[in-house]
Amino acid sequence: MWDYTDKVMDYFFKPRNVGYIDDADGVGEVGSLACGDALTLTFKLDDNGRIEEAKFKTFGCASAIASSSVLTEMIKGMTLEEAGKVSNQDIVRELGGLPEQKMHCSVMGHDALKAAIANYRSKGERSPGKTGRVVCTCFGVTDEEIKEVIRSNSLTTVEQVTNYCKAGGGCGGCHGQIQTLIDQIHSTKESTEHITESPKPVRLTNIKKIELIKQTINEQIRPALRADGGDIELIDVEGNKVIVAFRGMCAQCRLAEFTMKEVVEARLREFVSEELFVEEDKDSARQPHNHRTV
Fold first, then answer.
1. Candidate list 35, 61, 171, 253, residue with the active-site label
2. Structural domain boundaries of the chain?
3. Is 105 one of the catalytic residues?
4. How distant, in Å, are the alpha carbons of 10, 92, 112, 262 from that of 7?
5. Cα distance between residue 5 and residue 231, in whole Å
6. Residue 174 catalytic?
7. 134-186 is classed CATH 1.10.10.1100
8. pLDDT tens track for 22-35
């Protein structure tokens, strides 16, 4: 059982400001149900530009609910400039502490607040999404997100990074890349012993391109999918278009077209060529044994 403070339990059992502001000035949405945690934060400003009302809806554990609830209380009465300076560590201190393995809940609250403020300042335009390359395919965490939590919280180990943003908490295949990011930020090592990425050729023959695509799918993508009951099959390569079919749980998932396709595309661009793009062969997914494979 997690060792929660009395304040965490209070905000969990009696959460404040649960709900959604329909005419909100700012809306921030972070996380994913597929990854186990999701949060929507909304706020309304008064005539003086201060946060008059803040509400949240979250899917997650006691720490996620408590972190989201206490955050809405903290930012009431603040200007956006003041709210923008609230860190995940401020949330943790307000709760009297969180278990190390649950620190990612405070980070999720901080990220939702930043997203809501950005939404207001962009006059309601939809966020362009995550930036950077995907490092953790299990949870869809990018290198920019990992570097941000390392810098903001002075993290020094892979385990700490997992606790703060979940990266590396699935199959573990990205641990080497996470360690490399830690080393780069802290400048503690000059060697590249932890770098596992394959070199990205400047020019590729068609044969070499297909070989690298197969290698990337087999070594970087398929293991993570199989760990969750899914799979991927390479159907064909036409120039820079890579045609794939998702199997098992991935084929049944409603998010597969928008989430897994983007993850696969990011990995292929990272390890093979930035010019590649992925197309899903849905007909083949429905008839897994009647297609031509590369």
1. 35
2. 6-121, 134-186, 206-286
3. yes
4. 5, 11, 21, 39
5. 41
6. no
7. yes
8. 999 999 998 765 55
